[in-house]
């Protein structure tokens, strides 16, 4: 007896619904996903679980930040169209790094500008006094963006200076990350609100339909005062950065004070972040300044994030590696880049470039250390040298090529920073700055990591590290 092939109305509806859902998702993936592994993974999930898979894809698989950014770009009144005001400082480069300068210029739509003064600062002890003095002297505007802004002793010192500036009529805007500075509780945010200081929380929401944005963080650290003085780098605001006071978990870091035309690019990035979060357009006059040549450094700001700036920091680092002739020095707190950066760095080592990578002996995220141990062998195979820096944990993000070109800022060399986070770096073509940073990195080459160190781990540890490596895109 033949089985009954007729479907009930409910089963027929579900069959049609599954077909429509799977077909729609697959078509969207084919048209929008560049990463083949990601595309195949999402298609597999949706085919096996049409309804749940579609819900998950709608929540986590679509980069709505890019769509939102494009919409906001069309609305904002200020932006890069004002960049012509710096035309007298535009600089064309010759020599070894000219291709890099041209590429980054086209990539970012920002010019390389001359006449900048760059000061290297270390730890909160050497940096916070400069930042607080700048805020205290502010006459027109203070734009501050920080991933972590704690309400502790040093955080309260910043609150006091910001509140005083606000009360005397300075336009103060403070942006903190919605997770980095506290998701459920953000004492600093409420403290600033109590003082009347305008403050925003980047990508913060408790509503379920906003959950896809939780994984996208603003990791930038920016301070711009009067459009005249700027600060950027890896330094958050918190007592743990006051290394000389011997906190329980000290964090060493490197920050940069900049003056000159490049400050405008820094200010535009901060103003864009504020607009992205609050939809408030900041008047160009707040950070417009008649710049005078304060130094000899050539510099440019490079921003990256899962919006219209996708992968621009990674592309810049990749191009710099291809142009290296003698040496590459890198210092990063977390080293979990994708395959293409590992490959490019390995190829540089194979062609005779001396590649030195300095990472902490132990970071503040053990799982990242485990994943790094399982991911770093190909670099050793290529002949690169990997060094472990003694405590305190160093959070600096520094890259120097041939003691001429430097790349510094907020971006770690991991997939999260290179693809998910909103980051800001600065490239400089200044041999003096490069030499200082090269010396600083070299002073932290305390212990060399070898194949033997990796091989002597017991099997259970190797399995643990390899398992942690599977979560690289989310660490």
UniProtKB/TrEMBL annotation:
Biological function: Could be a virulence factor.
UniProt name for this protein: Cardiolipin synthase
Species this chain originates from: Acetobacter garciniae
Cellular component terms (Gene Ontology): extracellular region; plasma membrane
GO terms for MF: cardiolipin synthase activity
Topological category with respect to the lipid bilayer: Multi-pass membrane protein
Entry-linked SMART domains: PLDc (SM00155)
Localization: Cell membrane; Secreted
Taxonomic path: Bacteria, Pseudomonadati, Pseudomonadota, Alphaproteobacteria, Acetobacterales
InterPro entries reported in the protein's UniProt record: Cardiolipin_synthase, CLS_N, PLD-like_dom, PLipase_D/transphosphatidylase
UniProt keyword list: Cell membrane, Lipid biosynthesis, Lipid metabolism, Membrane, Phospholipid biosynthesis, Phospholipid metabolism, Repeat, Secreted, Transferase, Transmembrane, Transmembrane helix
Tree of life domain: Bacteria
């Amino acid at each position: 007896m033949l089985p009954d092939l007729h479907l009930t109305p409910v089963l027929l509806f579900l069959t049609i619904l599954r077909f429509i859902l799977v077909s729609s998702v697959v078509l969207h993936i084919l048209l929008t996903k560049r990463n083949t592994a990601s595309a195949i993974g999402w298609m597999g999930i949706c085919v096996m679980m049409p309804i749940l898979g579609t819900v998950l894809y709608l929540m986590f698989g679509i980069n709505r930040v890019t769509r939102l950014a494009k919409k906001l770009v069309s609305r904002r009144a200020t932006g890069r169209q004002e960049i012509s005001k710096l035309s007298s400082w535009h600089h064309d480069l010759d020599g070894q790094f000219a291709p890099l300068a041209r590429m980054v210029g086209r990539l970012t739509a920002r010019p390389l500008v001359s006449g900048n003064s760059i000061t290297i600062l270390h730890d909160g002890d050497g940096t916070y006094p400069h930042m607080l003095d700048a805020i205290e002297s502010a006459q027109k505007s203070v734009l501050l963006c920080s991933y972590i802004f704690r309400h502790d002793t040093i955080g309260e010192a910043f609150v006091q200076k910001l509140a005083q500036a606000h009360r005397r009529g300075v336009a103060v805007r403070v942006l903190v990350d919605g997770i980095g500075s506290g998701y459920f509780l953000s004492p600093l945010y409420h403290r600033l609100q109590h003082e009347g200081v305008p403050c925003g929380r980047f990508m913060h929401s408790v509503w379920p339909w906003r959950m896809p944005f939780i994984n996208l963080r603003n990791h930038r650290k920016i301070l711009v005062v009067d459009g005249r003085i700027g600060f950027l780098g890896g330094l958050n605001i918190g007592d743990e950065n006051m290394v000389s006071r011997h906190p329980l978990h000290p964090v060493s870091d490197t920050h940069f004070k900049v003056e000159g035309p490049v400050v405008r690019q820094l200010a535009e990035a901060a103003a864009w972040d504020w607009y992205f979060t609050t939809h408030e357009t900041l008047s160009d006059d707040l950070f417009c300044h008649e710049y005078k040549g304060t130094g000899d450094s050539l510099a440019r700001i490079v921003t990256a994030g899962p919006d219209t700036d996708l992968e621009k920091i990674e592309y810049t680092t990749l191009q710099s590696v291809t142009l290296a002739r003698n040496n590459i020095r890198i210092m990063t707190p977390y080293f979990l880049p994708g395959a293409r950066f590992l490959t490019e760095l390995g190829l540089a080592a194979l062609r005779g470039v001396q590649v030195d990578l300095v990472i902490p002996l132990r970071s503040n995220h053990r799982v990242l250390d485990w994943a790094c141990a399982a991911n770093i062998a190909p670099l050793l195979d290529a002949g690169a040298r990997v060094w472990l820096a003694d405590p305190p944990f160093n959070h600096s993000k520094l890259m120097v090529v041939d003691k001429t070109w430097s790349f510094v800022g907020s971006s770690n060399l991991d997939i999260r920073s290179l693809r998910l986070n909103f980051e800001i770096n600065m490239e400089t073509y200044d041999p003096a700055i490069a030499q200082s940073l090269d010396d600083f990195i070299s002073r932290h080459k305390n212990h060399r990591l070898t194949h033997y160190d990796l091989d002597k781990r017991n099997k259970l540890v190797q399995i643990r590290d390899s398992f942690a490596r599977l979560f690289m895109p989310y660490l």
